[in-house]
């Protein structure tokens, strides 16, 4: 698969267990589930936030897809941040060209990127779908 890493996640019908496994290796402090609306507020320690978010928001986005829950990350001791971090914190991982593409199109936070569909990012940024995923 073009030297891509594949993570295998042990499925569970217990939503809390499945969410915990899908966000690993980040260590979660608390999960509050709204099963009716399929929302999960997940509290993580400050030093675990970027690990839970993942590169370009990939970890939390994939965890949401896998579990079927809209996962909102909350930094421990803080207000609900909905995994919102300034995109400039990921400038090194993105590279200057990619960072400027996001910034020039108005994407300033991780939340801005995660809340945008992959197809919309492809159309707006002119980036290959594989790179975004």
Quick synopsis:
The chain is of the alpha+beta class and 133 residues long. It is built from eight helices and three strands. The mean pLDDT is 84.
- The count of DSSP E runs of length 2 or more, i.e. the number of strands, is 3
**Percentage of helical residues?**
25-40%
CATH topology of the largest domain: GMP Synthetase, Chain A, domain 3
Describe the main β-sheet briefly.
3 strands, mixed
Mean pLDDT score: 84
**H/E element sequence:** HEEHHEHHHHH
How many DSSP H or I helices? 8
Point out poorly predicted stretches: none
Shape: globular
User: How many distinct domains?
Assistant: 2
CATH homologous superfamily descriptor of the largest domain: K homology (KH) domain
Strand residue content? 5-15%
Write the topology of this structure.
Layout (H helix, E strand, L loop, with lengths): L14 H8 L5 E7 L4 E6 L4 H5 L4 H10 L2 E6 L15 H4 L1 H9 L5 H5 L3 H8 L3 H4 L1
Parallel strand pairs: 2-3
Antiparallel strand pairs: 1-2
Helix pairs in contact: 1-3
Task: Provide a descriptive summary of the structure in words.
The structure is a single chain. The chain has 133 residues and is α+β, with helices and mostly antiparallel strands. It folds into two domains: 9-83, K homology (KH) domain (GMP Synthetase, Chain A, domain 3), CATH 3.30.300; 85-133, no CATH class. It is 40% helix and 14% strand. It has helices spanning 15-22, 49-53, 58-67, 91-94, 96-104, 110-114, 118-125, 129-132; strands at residues 28-34, 39-44, 70-75. It has a three-stranded mixed β-sheet. The radius of gyration is 15 Å and the shape is globular. 23% of the residues are buried.
């Amino acid at each position: 698969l073009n030297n891509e890493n594949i993570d295998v996640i042990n499925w569970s019908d217990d939503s809390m267990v499945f969410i915990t496994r899908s966000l690993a290796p980040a260590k979660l402090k608390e999960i509050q589930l709204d099963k009716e609306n399929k929302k999960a507020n997940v509290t993580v320690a400050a030093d675990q936030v970027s690990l839970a978010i993942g590169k370009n928001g990939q970890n939390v986005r994939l965890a949401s897809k896998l579990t079927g829950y809209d996962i909102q990350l909350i930094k421990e001791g803080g207000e609900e941040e909905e995994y919102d971090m300034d995109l400039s914190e990921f400038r090194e991982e993105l590279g200057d060209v990619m960072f400027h593409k996001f910034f020039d199109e108005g994407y300033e936070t991780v939340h801005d990127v995660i809340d945008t569909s992959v197809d919309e990012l492809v159309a707006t940024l002119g980036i290959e779908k594989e790179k975004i995923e």
